[in-house]
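Next comes the chain:
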Amino acid sequence: FEYGRYMKFTIAVFDADQGSCFDRMQPDLDNGVSIVHGMAPEVGECRSKTLEAMEHHCKTANGVSKKTYKNRAGEPKKGGEVQGKGDNPALWCLTSDKLLVGMDQMYPRMALPSASGKEDITNTHFAFVDDVRTLQGSEEYGIQELQNVMVKLNVGAQKFSDVMDVTAAYTAFHKCETSLLGWKEYKGSLVVDYGTKYETILGDSQGAATKIKQRSPCEGPRALGFCQALDGNTKPELRFRTGKIKKMFAAATSYT
C-alpha cells in the first residue's frame, strides 16, 4: 500500500473472515488434498477412523464439561476437523492453497507497475489462516475509475465466498470490511479521495444478502497487531497505543 501511495495507484481491498474455520474443515477433503501432496493413503484412512471415533468435551465460558459427545449410531454425523487439533494449521494451508490457486484462475490480478513501466507486484489475495484480503486496483484515477475497481472487487469477493463454500466454510459478512484508496485532482495535484462510497452487497449459499461495511482510507484494520491505514495515517495506531497505556496505568494505580 505504501508503494501504491507513491505511485498514486487506485487500490480496493476486501477483508474477509472465515467463521469457525477449523471446525468447518472437511476431513474427507483434507485427506484427499493431503494424499495429492504425498501423504500415504493408509494415514488418511487412519485419520478418518480416528476422527469418527473421537469423543469431545464441550468448552464454554463457564468451563469444560465433564461429559463428552461423539458420533452415535442413528444420529446425525458430526463433521469437521474440530478446533484445537495440532494438524489443523498444516491441513488448512494445503486446502486453502488449492482454493486460492482456483481463485487466481477466476479473478484478475492486481498489478502494481514498476518505475520502468513493467509489472512489478501482481497478486489477487493475501491470506493469513482464515483472514483473507481480496485485492483489486488500477493505474487510472478518478471517481469513475474507483467505481470500476470496486465493481471488480465485489465480483472477486463474491467468488471468494462461493469458493469457500466448497469446504463448508462460511464468510462472516458482519466482520468483513472494504477499504478504498482512490485519487482525485485538486489544484493540479492528485490527492486521496475520502468522499467516494460504494455499496458492496454479497450473498451467502442460502441466498441471504449482506451489505458490507466500508472503511475510510484513514481508518486502518488491525493487521497482525498493527493498525495500517491505506493513506498512511498513523493516528489510529497512536490512539490505540495511547488507550492501551492508559488502561495499563489505571490497572497499576488501582493496586496502590
